[in-house]
């Protein structure tokens, strides 16, 4: 069965009050120690009994340092709370002044946007028009300045790109020239190889040709005693030279 809810009032019995104080004091000191260890907090606990007996707890046993820090914090809080009446009046005056100034600026802004113009007379409208013209002039001047700067920047970029293009074109031309030289060398090498191959084939073909036959003289058909006789003699000599020696001897005999 659970414990009933304890009424928050003074315990009249002295013995029960003393027992409850002892139990609650031990539990409170234990909780202070736990929160100082678990949460790494600076905890200072001071308890005085009804008889004036002191019970205390301080994290890291630094009660004086915690009390000094508490005093500094409480003093600064009191200074923030306590306000001088004269300074309060000056603040109220400054607040009203700033508020009226903000309202005036907001009104001017609305009028510059073309709103709340009913309260303005001709002179105020003329002054507002001059303000708008001056503002428009400043806007146009700033716009032109930005345009000029952007154009100069674009021209600079264009010049840089042209220089890069020239460099790339120069490199490309150099590469094309190198390629043409390589092609010419390759073509010249192929021609030399072909010429060497043709020379080798011609020499080989001449080495395999059959031996030349002795030339055969044809006797001319022209009628003439000397030419006919000379042709016959040459023919006989050619025939004799072609016959073996034993046939020649038999013919001569």
TrEMBL record:
Gene Ontology cellular component list: nucleus
Residue ranges, compositional bias (Basic and acidic residues): 171-184
Keywords on record: DNA-binding, Nucleus, Transcription, Transcription regulation
Keyword NADP: no
Oxidoreductase as UniProt keyword: no
Protein localization: Nucleus
A biological-process GO annotation: positive regulation of transcription by RNA polymerase II
Biased composition (Low complexity): 185-207
Name of the molecule in the record: Floral homeotic protein APETALA 1-2
Gene name per UniProt: 2AP1
């Amino acid at each position: 069965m659970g414990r009933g809810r304890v009424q928050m009032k003074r315990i009249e019995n002295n013995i029960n009050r003393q027992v409850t104080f002892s139990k609650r004091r031990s539990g409170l000191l234990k909780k202070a120690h736990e929160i100082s260890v678990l949460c790494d907090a600076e905890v200072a606990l001071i308890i005085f009994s009804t008889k004036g007996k002191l019970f205390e707890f301080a994290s890291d046993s630094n009660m004086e340092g915690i009390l000094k820090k508490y005093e500094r914090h409480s003093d600064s809080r009191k200074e923030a709370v306590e306000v001088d009446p004269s300074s309060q009046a000056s603040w109220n005056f400054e607040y009203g002044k700033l508020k009226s100034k903000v309202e005036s600026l907001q009104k001017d802004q609305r009028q510059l946007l073309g709103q709340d113009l009913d309260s303005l007379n001709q002179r105020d409208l003329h002054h507002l028009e001059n303000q708008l013209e001056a503002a428009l002039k400043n806007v146009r001047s700033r716009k032109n300045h930005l345009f000029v700067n952007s154009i100069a920047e674009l021209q600079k970029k264009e010049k840089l790109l042209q220089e890069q293009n020239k460099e790339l074109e120069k490199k490309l031309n150099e590469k094309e020239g190198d390629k043409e030289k390589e092609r010419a060398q390759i073509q010249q090498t192929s021609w030399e190889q072909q010429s060497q191959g043709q020379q080798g084939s011609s020499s080989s073909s001449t080495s395999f040709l059959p031996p030349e036959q002795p030339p055969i003289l044809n006797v001319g058909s022209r009628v003439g005693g000397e030419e006919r006789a000379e042709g016959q003699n040459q023919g006989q000599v050619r025939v004799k030279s072609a016959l073996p020696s034993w046939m020649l001897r038999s013919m001569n005999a």
